[in-house]
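Hi Q.,

Before the meeting this afternoon, I wanted you to have the zinc ion prediction in hand. No need to reply - just skim if you have a minute. The sequence and ligand are here:
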Amino acid sequence: MAIYKDASYLQQSSSEAFDQDYGPGAAAPQAGLYRCMGCHREIGIAAGHALPPQGHHAHTTSQGSVRWRLIVYADHKPK
Ligand SMILES: [Zn+2]
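Predicted structure with the ligand bound:
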């Protein structure tokens, strides 16, 4: 679970950027925090960098494959 102290640094968003899962090793389209939807592990990554590979951490069978989802979009520039 990601946590924060000062809510003025974060803003709720309904952007579709938060709706897509990315496979291991995929390029992160946005800088920020990503959560593995299988085991809930979180990572921080720069835009364009490769998300961690399948071997980054182990899953049980019930957790399924490693799939990364954006949960905090860093340095978002409104269009
Ligand atoms: Zn995982």
